[in-house]
Amino acid sequence: MPDGLGDHHWHYISEKAAKAKKQRVLEKYWIGEPVKAKKLPRATNAFDAAKNGYTFYKLLQAPDGHWPGEYSGPHFLLPGYIIGSYVTGAPIKEEERLEMVRWLFLRAHPEDGGWGIHVEGKSTVFGTVLNYVTLRLLGVDAEHPIMIKARGTIHKLGGATGIPAWGKFWLSVLNVYDWEGNNPIPPELWLLPEWLPIHPYRWWIHTRNVYMPMSYLYGIRYKAEENDLILALRQEIYTEPYGSIDWPAQRNNVAAIDTYVPHTRVLDGLFSILGVYEGCAIPPLRRAGLDFVYDQIKKEDENTSYQDLGPVNKMMNLIVRHYVDGPESVAFKEHVKRRQDFLWLGVDGMMMCGTNGSQLWDIAFISQALAETGVGDLEENRESMMRALEWLDHAQMQSNPLHFKSAYREATKGAWPFSTKTQGYVVSDCAAEGMKAVLYLQENLPVKERPISERRLCDTVDILLDMQNSTGGWASYERRRAPMALELINPSEVFGDIMVDVDYPECTTSAITALSHFRKHYPNYRANEIEAAKKRAVDYIHNAQDANGAWLGRWGICFTYATMFALESLSLVGETYENSESVRRACDLLISKQREDGGWGESWETCEKLEWIEHENTQVVQTAWAGLALMYANYPHRAPLQRAAELIISRQLPDGSWPQEAIEGVFNKTVAIAYPNFKFSFTIWMLGKVHLYLKTLG
Ligand code: LAN
User: Fold this and answer.
1) Which fold has domain 358-697?
2) Nearest to 83 by CA among 69, 107, 100, 102
3) Per-residue pLDDT reduced to its tens digit, 392-423
């Protein structure tokens, strides 16, 4: 499966080869085949449990040193993959087709047969229509019972006319929705002067990178050629005859069940103005807008070896390159090849992932967990840790993007990405956690020569210092470029807070802890600036504390996740339960949420509703986060930590692993996303650390 520096590709082998043991534990584990792992001696303390956990997790390490994983969750990615492939004729292997159908069948909502915006969400028009269409393009008959049920749900929800904006876009590309039913997305926006606060280069990078190809395809009113299937779909997904739909009246028609961010008056006003412009768009201006956008798309493709920032713009760019460069072009062929990076075969079939993986993110946490707890010091784990260090060495970016400022990109020299070096985007906390992992490993392992030189670590420091905002916090990919008011024109209807890359407690903590660790080992480089950055970051963390005493997570679920990060930040300046009101409030909140069984469990719905919502079950990952948070706070009482550790140990299987529980991550407030490797990294970390911690409490 993994080949090269962290790229994942699933290859099909014959049953004979599978029987001949050509599959490793790594592959078997992820596709749900029984894995024959050793039954380990029962752990009698937390350290042994952590050790057993790693004995198993080591089996899932790829030969190149990292840990692959399924990065599933969003239900609006595979439709882009399939629609984009269908309209351009990009092939889909038969095995993949079958596995994708299996995935969607098994993920249909058991009650109404629909799909949500993500795997754990209620059925929506967005999820149900797009996945229904996907299944049809994958060759499933409209009269299949699963399709009949799903279609019933589409009709019950009012039909496809009320699909949110991104759905309208995909359906229009496929020619089963009229472009007239879309609000305007003119490429000319890119020609506005850059000093304007609404210039698209100032938008959060994912938003602008998606709107870029969207505006191209809208600008030319791209649509697939009509065929029988398209004509059939037009009859299946609506509640009225296709020809009689009043398309312009659909622009602001969004099903209530889908709406998370209703249009503001400002946005509606903007759309009205753009609508008038669209009626009399000046051809040379449109051409100039299209040319500009095409040039940016080309640069994005070349900067990322056709992987692109994420799965959504990836498939849209593929269509643009097919249209402009043609089916025989190198660009289109590279695009077709690179689709593979986003596919993952899981227990329930094949899906498209949120990125081309979470390689760096996963290796960073387990490396730190091992190095900090002493599990990595054990002779039996040395070789595996060396391989992790090697992977980190290769994954660091050592140059800036090919197209740098001209593609509105930030510097990357010295950074680590979220997934792989090929994808090549800097994310503040990934650069930070990558550097922390390297520091931990290089300082803790008996390495003769440190593969990552001081100079290369100084480059990371430069990147991190450069990315701090004037507010003291860190955003995700870039320093803040626009005022918060830009959120007033969030056109997505389904995602919250996507217009501006703002400060996040998680990113801020990672950045600041990385800089502090760096200072311990290299005390002279930009020391005063690091100290000043730390002070400003801590002020930001204080200001970001929620009224309930915790911190709201933006990338993990939810208060538990961000509170772990925030308390790590505060620990850097010596703020603990004993001496800090802020830390005490956070700990009291966590303690008040600890359950009878010793664990914690928070639902993904917290991220959407912005208030603590209990999950029906206790979660080992969140229990580990809460335990780590309490330890960062120097929480003085033994019992809650001991009970938390016991809960985690009680869920451990005889082979050292933990079963998969609820989904762990989130983005854009409404979409849950899976981090299945967290059930290893954070449990091992918490158990190893609590063992040492409880000793200090006596
Ligand atoms: C991610 C995944 C990682 C995540 C962390 C590093 C955990 C975070 O701390 C910073 C933001 C980041 C990098 C992040 C941003 C948004 C992503 C890329 C995702 C959640 C994975 C998928 C998501 C992306 C936007 C999905 C495509 C959907 C669109 C709405 C474009």
Assistant:
1) Glycosyltransferase (1.50.10)
2) 100
3) 999 999 999 999 999 999 999 999 999 999 99
